[in-house]
Amino acid sequence: MEAIRFIVGTLLQVLLVMVFLLRVLLPLARADSRNQLSQAVIRMTNPLVLPLRKVLPPIGKVDTASVVALIIVQAAAVAMMWLLGGYPGIFTPAQFIQVVFLMLVTTVLRFYIFALILYAILSWIAPGTYSPAASLLDTLCEPLLRPLRRIIPPLGGIDLSALFAIIILQALHIAIT
Sign of the CA dihedral 165, 18, 72, 83? Predict the structure, then answer.
């Protein structure tokens, strides 16, 4: 049963919730919507986002339909894991909502930790080259790294801002969980 919970949790949390999280983050980071990966995210999430968009208009730069879709998908993932016995401590609707939002926050933190690690590795292996994935990573990670670069300048030509961002995000993750 533990293996089934792992597989279902990974498929739901890592794949499905991450795609909807990207749907929320890409417009906020002003990512190129013509990028192949952006197009894939848009196509995969449209079946849920487009009907919600008819009811929920955007508020400023925030696409409320995408945010609500992300919360719905996260709630469905938590409900599925609860049915499989993954969250035995959920007894009330308030506890369920708390777990949904806690999982959503930890997913955002894990996503950015993983994205920053990939960003740093790509900057070492293939600096200055173009790929759709590298372009999206750059667009998503730069808003986090820019403020740190003002505080921590490159040391000997080495930019350590990603390392400090990962440490900060990991500390937040530990504090929340």
Answer: negative
The percent of residues above 70 in pLDDT, for the chain, comes to 100
pLDDT tens, residue by residue, 123-161: 888 777 778 888 889 899 999 999 998 888 877 778 888
Query: What pTM did the predictor assign?
Result: 0.87
Q: Which amino acid is at 27?
A: P
User: What's the CA gap between 96 and 33, in Å, rounded?
Assistant: 34
Pair 129, 137: CB distance under 8 Å: no
Q: How far is CA 157 from CA 93, 128, 160, in A?
A: 52, 15, 9
Q: How far apart (Å, rounded) are the C-alpha atoms in residues 124 and 127?
A: 6
Q: Considering Cα of 89, then 92, then 96, then 98, what sign does the dihedral take?
A: negative
Q: Which residue type does 169 have?
A: L
Which helix H or strand E contains 62, and what residues bound it? none
Give a three-class secondary structure readout of 61-89: CECHHHHHHHHHHHHHHHHHHHHCCCCCC
